[in-house]
Design brief:
alpha+beta; seven-stranded mixed β-sheet; disordered N terminus
Amino acid sequence: MAWECSIAEKREQEKGFAVRKMEQALFTELRGMYVTTKESPHVIRARIRLRDLIDPEVFRHAVDITMERYPYFCVELQRKDGQFYFAENHRPVVITNSLHGVDLNSEDSHFHMIAFCWQDNWIILDVFHGLTDGTGAYEVMRTLLYYYCSERYNVELNDAGIRLVGDEIPEEEWIDPVVNRTNLPTPSRNDLPNALNPVIAAGLEEDRQQTAYSIAISESEFMRFTLDNDGSPGTMVALLLSRAIAKLFPDAEDVIRIALCVNQRKALRAPLAHQSLVGGVMLEYKDKMRDWPLERQGTIYRGMVFAQTLEETVLAGVASNAGMNRMILSKESDQERLEVISYINGLASKLITATVSYVGKANYKEAEQYIRDFRSWTSSATNGLLVEIAAVNGRFMIDFLQRFSSPLYVNAFLKELEDNGIVYDLQDVQELDLPNIKLPWTE
């Protein structure tokens, strides 16, 4: 997003105030907006179960003070001359007593792209995934939990590393590090062969019940297992899933290829940016690997990650995403833009069997002692299968987010855990319930 700030406002900021007059033309956000549908809204839903019942007054206060710290999330979508913008939205961010929440960008959400809800001892953050990614959402939740738990339990929590009201908000948090970048490398041509499609391979075309399977594993035990086999949490989950799929379809002609999400901030030299900055590496489970021991497979997957996360390679991915957004901007009508996205998604779905996403350790600081459960939900991937990993309060939470209800892939993955001596807890199976984003094509 491009933003403008007057000299007077900059002087106010230098005094420690985050005062800006915002009118932000969408750029990085565009693909996320046009990819959203009513059936598959592009939303991040962070669900946290706390130790005790939620105090609604304390929660209201915590949300209000938290959103003061994140003015770039307090925005309203507007349109001028066929282009979308974010403008300041001073209406209160909505909180509802439910587990469903409200439609974003609607009257019910005060036209915000972010909202909260609660029920019993659960609190939920809903935010447009084009506005931010898991890294950005974790920052908001870190601030919220600090304020809520401090007041709810009348304790003084350590605030080191937590973004708080009164901080000077640096430019690096606001500005889009991609929109004006001119020195990005040229993306290479992608000639990958088709990947196994999990829906088609299993004959699940008629199974359209979006479902979330949630699995818990000891963080210390899984980390020990992962390190023993030359991996990392993300690569190990991707490897175990690859092995599971290979055993389900030993004679499949299409390759098994897992996309592992990558945070692009490091390569962009923009660690504080709030935008959705996610790329990916392709982990292909080659036929010759199938009879190798797990440790050797882990080394190969780690090598693939290393090669594809070199700065030049990540920036080529950034350039590719920027090119897509410029292509969207070149089209005059929403219908033309939606057709571009449909074409791009169609190509992507042929290249990826499943997607694995691991933001990293949540690190909710001292507030973690009050957390009993965590879910990280978003729309399932174009190919139908997305695995979200979170590390919270001593456990890895692994959510299988599917466009179908069949437990076929979950059961195969759990069998891999069992065969490798990894103790797990299948906590629950739920409908993947995400709030809609009200847009002209999702009304």
